[in-house]
Amino acid sequence: MSYGKGNNKKRPSTDKPKSGVKKTSAAGKSTIKKDDKKTGFPRPKPALDKKPKAPKKPANPDEIRLNKYIANSGVCSRRDADIYIQSGNVKVNGEVVTEMGYKVQLNDVVNFDGSLITPEKKEYVLLNKPKGFTTSKEEDINSNNVLDLVRGATRAKLQAVGRMDKTTTGLLLFTNDTDMIRKFTIPNQRSSKVYQVSLDKNLKYEDLEKIAGGLTIDGHRVYVEEVSYIEDQPKSEIGIKMKTSNVKVVRSIFEHFKYDVLKVDRVVFAGLTKKNLPRGNWRFLTEQEIINLRNI
């Protein structure tokens, strides 16, 4: 029979079952919907009642993991600290601790590889000191203290490395690293410092040669690495390179030869310079500079 155009009789349905309708197998079992096959997503499962999690125990603000305590002291990273702990090189209150995750109190005594450490992060600040500030409160009660210039740098308790009177200018290092302070203030220094000295008159060449050869002042032998006139400056402007960080020694050299020292400016300290550091300003040392100081 023809089912052409204009015929109102219904055509017998030969369409396949629409998507989403379950098929039944010969065994009478239902199969997965076609829609599920297309999307690949399983049917949603009914929500199960989950047991409430136990509340976390509040952390004790006075406790800190031992490896973090060590890392905060600046001696090594937390990962390296774990190695030292496992190796038995760390003591807490006199007892060796090898347990990972061990926590200590901030007032505990921690000994790392033979040295006493504190959890305070080591900070290193370099100042280009101006006139009128001193490192000693006892020197002049009316003078300002250099710590006022770096007070906003960090909360750490900084100390100046060496002394400077109120008339001396130039580079001055601050840190809370007691080992670093000791290293650069002991008499037998290994690092060089360069000072620019302004005198009241021209330095005689014969006196310059005597200074270069070393001299004895008050029974102490003073060694000078280099001394020279500063290029394109009057012969009263002198550059002197020494290992001492004691500015009084620098002054005493020229006073020994009857010169009045008008100004002393430290322009180099253990490889650190005043580059991009205007007078009265400070900056933090870079990681490489810190490494260099430790390796001196």
Description:
The chain is built from 8 helices and 19 strands. The protein has 296 residues and is of the alpha+beta class. The protein has 3 domains: 55 residues, RNA-binding S4 domain (Structural Genomics Hypothetical 15.5 Kd Protein In mrcA-pckA Intergenic Region, Chain A), CATH 3.10.290.10; 83 residues, Pseudouridine synthase I, catalytic domain, N-terminal subdomain (Alpha-Beta Plaits); 77 residues, Alpha-Beta Plaits. The strands form 5 sheets. Strands 7, 10, 11, 12, 15, 16, 17, 18 and 19 form a 9-stranded mixed β-sheet that branches. Strands 3-2-5-6 form a 4-stranded antiparallel β-sheet, with no helix packed on it. The protein is elongated, with a radius of gyration of 38 Å. The termini are far apart.
List the helices and strands and how they pair.
Elements: H1 34-39, E1 63-65, H2 66-72, H3 78-86, E2 90-92, E3 95-96, E4 103-105, E5 110-112, E6 115-117, E7 124-129, E8 133-134, E9 144-145, H4 147-150, E10 159-160, E11 169-175, H5 178-183, E12 193-199, H6 205-212, E13 215-217, E14 220-222, E15 226-229, E16 237-242, H7 247-255, E17 261-269, E18 272-273, E19 282-284, H8 287-295
- Regions with pLDDT < 50 over 5+ consecutive residues? 1-9, 19-28
Whole-number count of domains: 3
**Alpha carbon gap, first and last residue:** 108 Å
The CATH topology of the largest domain, please? Answer: Alpha-Beta Plaits
Keywords: Isomerase, RNA-binding
Pfam families: PseudoU_synth_2, S4
Protein name: 23S rRNA pseudouridine2605 synthase
Family: Belongs to the pseudouridine synthase RsuA family.
